[in-house]
């Protein structure tokens, strides 16, 4: 399949599944079965005032916010914040949310619930003044049945959030209701939340069996006779199967029903062809539909062995993965649908075929995007277990809440075809304690009980020389995760030949070695670099720095003002770094050639690297003051050879085979102008420019103007959609000025809101909620949020001494 055709299928799938799911949510039986409650909340940062949980409390002076909302990102990083470098030096504390909603007279008697996709953290929920309890873990979703508290007319929800116990995490968490909130409304007979499980136990080229297990709840006090109808829809939305079954359900019963439906000539799900099916289940009484749900799924098989590696649909597949954290850069933790989808798109376009959701429950829309665009997923629940990594982390919760939180992950996510593996932990500290085996078996056992179709892993790591002590723990897992320990693979394979290994974390600079491990050894099924996308917090882990600056690794001391990681292949505003293009060419044979230039040591200062850093390398031929001096140029290519030309003169020609790690390094005497790299075949011929086998860089002149590029110029007027707009400082010829740090001022008119601005500088201390922001390496980012009305939004940008510009975003 061509890349163009593959991406067409991905985006058609993405469009279909989101239209289907959202139209179902917004146009269900009677009142919306799931009604989005994201708009019009009142918010107060700080301790909840006395009496604020009462319905008649006056919150008129509180700020109005729409969800998703993260109050931490609105603050300015400060060295004094108790979250420290791990939390990006951002403020946390407490906050209170209030919202009203109406219930009509005819709705009394229905079953109502509140569903929170994610609140960080310690969220105590009140409805009409009554507490529903506190949900502690900030990453797991939770549901409250509020039927007994609902009344006709106005109802009031209060959510008190407490993120004041710091530090409680090793990365930036955000604070507040950072994911969606839903009001659910059903008849007294209804489908249980997360009670439908779809598998494909038998798959062949001609036929697949779709097994559907679903649970229906009868909250009436008498027995009812019902009919259950299931309709299957194919990848294009056409009906491909239907069945109806009569059932009898007892009073108060939760009835599980199993069905098996055939699909002829199935289109199997894979990263290259992410074909999605859906099942609509409806229950009726006396021919009147009383509840229905829509579940998407994929048809695929997975297998794995030390002898044959990982197979998807019977075909061997090497997993080129990246780890991510949950934040969205300048948006903080706020999980806007478009931001989550964009993150998946960026990874896919960078050549990844897999992602690890380190180290917590991802958002639901992120997983839908992985299904639709085509990324395999390791779905991870926890960072650590009983021994703390931070004073207030999950170690304080695990004994009481592990089963609820892990169940929420597996039950919520088990219908996603993109998920091929569950992960229950990361670098657990108590590896030398015997009770860790019991903990591991409990966690793995629950995963297998709720979903026997997928393997379970945990990412293991050692800090001393006794790696083999892990063997009893490793036996608990179907696939053993190695964090930075893959150099042990040969001895481990001899000692435990049946062990299946996966590199769950690797250093960015070890890209070639990591690829080699997986390419050469079937028992190593994949590599997941730390990380694919830059993230807030775990400050300075991937930095390089200059002699004289605050020295050392991120885990030694304080490195303020560094407040983000910078170890991602993709930076904080979505721009790919040269290491990303190199990694892409290792794992993908048909990618064009790419050229980058290493910053000369001493140009700005003497460069010092850290464990997760990569030598500063840029897509730039602009090095003023370095004329006549040597500079290194790297060319990444899968062609046999490459040729380098500077201002029309051939610099040299070098091989780019595996022996050279698919990379040619030229030492060039710098002079401004144009440098060109060309791919050469075995016969010495220059390969076609049209196929991407030429790459050139030009020296930039003085900053002259600002250019705006929107990832999407048309967005939905749903109050949730986003356009990510890159601002570039360019010279008169439109070449990006890589040293430009101009202060940019953004403004917006019309049907939109300027949601955030930012750049990729991890030492940046400006707030992302201001309209002014400096460029870094010649670039910055502005994010526009749609409103609930159609029309146009005009974003303009200006800077002293530069020619400004504006861009139109249509909200349809």
Write a structural description.
Helix content is 14%, strand content 37%. By secondary structure, the chain is mainly beta. The strands form eleven sheets. An eight-stranded parallel barrel has the order 22-23-24-25-26-27-28-29, surrounded by four helices. A six-stranded antiparallel β-sheet has the order 3-2-4-9-6-7, with no helix packed on it. 48% of the residues are buried. Helix 6 links the parallel strand 26 and strand 27 (480-483). It has five domains: 3-28 and 191-297, Immunoglobulin-like; 34-186, Sandwich (Jelly Rolls), CATH 2.60.120.260; 317-337 and 355-533, Alpha-Beta Barrel (TIM Barrel), CATH 3.20.20.80; 589-698, Immunoglobulin-like, CATH 2.60.40.10; 705-811, Sandwich (Immunoglobulin-like), CATH 2.60.40.10.
Sequence-ordered SSE layout with sheet pairings:
Elements: H1 3-26, E1 34-36, E2 41-45, E3 63-65, E4 93-103, E5 111-116, E6 123-127, E7 130-135, E8 142-145, E9 153-163, E10 181-186, E11 189-191, E12 197-203, E13 207-218, E14 224-233, E15 239-249, E16 254-264, E17 277-285, E18 288-297, E19 302-305, E20 309-312, E21 315-316, E22 319-324, H2 337-349, E23 354-357, H3 364-374, E24 376-380, H4 398-413, E25 419-426, H5 435-450, E26 456-460, H6 471-474, E27 480-483, H7 489-495, E28 501-506, H8 511-520, E29 524-529, E30 545-546, H9 578-587, E31 594-598, E32 607-608, E33 617-618, E34 630-636, E35 641-646, E36 649-655, E37 663-669, E38 674-680, E39 694-698, E40 705-710, E41 714-715, E42 722-730, E43 743-750, E44 752-758, E45 772-774, E46 779-786, E47 791-799, E48 802-811
